[in-house]
Design brief:
- The protein is mainly beta and 155 residues long.
- The chain folds into two domains: 85 residues, Chitinase A, domain 3, CATH 3.10.50.40; 49 residues, Thrombin, subunit H (Beta Barrel), CATH 2.40.10.
- It has one helix and nine strands.
- The strands form two sheets. Strands 1, 2, 3, 4 and 9 form a five-stranded antiparallel sheet that branches. Strands 5-8-7-6 form a four-stranded antiparallel sheet, with no helix packed on it.
- Strand 1 and strand 2 form a beta hairpin.
- The chain is elongated, with a radius of gyration of 21 Å.
- It starts with 15 loop residues before the first strand and ends with a strand.
């Protein structure tokens, strides 16, 4: 008879599929995202679904591990870049559009890919839009509960 308590648990690493619950919180403790009350997330290490800085802290963890990590802006969503603030003429927007700070709009970049931007300032002549990621410049508290680590199936 095999004793499952002696089974070797696979650590998070290259060529593994990880299933976990996670939450992201800001410095003030406010939760930005969490799946602890819902379905767990699954990803293959290196598939691009998790930022490299988030994947890096998971390396070596095994099923059942729970931890909280502090992710600096450089390893998370980047520093806030002032050159990602763009000013547009008010005339570039529909006259009847209610523009106000905090409104997120979708723009097309040079390749016609969708680019979200948040309005930060509006006056009679100009609209200033921030194209930084909303979490840029923030240290993120990354809480994880690893549910499963299995070999990734590659095709």
């Amino acid at each position: 008879m095999t004793d499952l308590s002696d089974a070797v648990l696979l650590p998070v690493g290259p060529d593994t599929k990880v299933t976990l619950h996670f939450s992201l919180s800001l410095e003030d403790g406010s939760t930005v995202d969490s799946n602890f009350d819902g379905e767990p997330a699954s990803f293959v290490v290196g598939d691009g679904n998790f930022l490299p800085g988030f994947e890096a802290v998971l390396q070596g963890l095994k099923s059942g591990a729970e931890d909280v990590f502090s992710i600096s802006p450089e390893k998370g969503f980047g520093q806030h870049n002032p050159s990602n603030l763009q000013q547009f003429s008010r005339k570039d927007f529909d006259e009847d559009m209610a523009l106000e700070p905090g409104l997120m709009l979708s723009f097309a970049d040079a390749n016609q890919a969708e680019l979200p931007g948040v309005i930060v300032e509006v006056d009679e002549d100009a609209v200033t839009v921030d194209f930084n990621h909303p979490l840029a410049g923030h240290t993120i508290s990354f809480k994880v509960q690893v549910l499963d680590v299995v070999p990734a199936v590659t095709h």
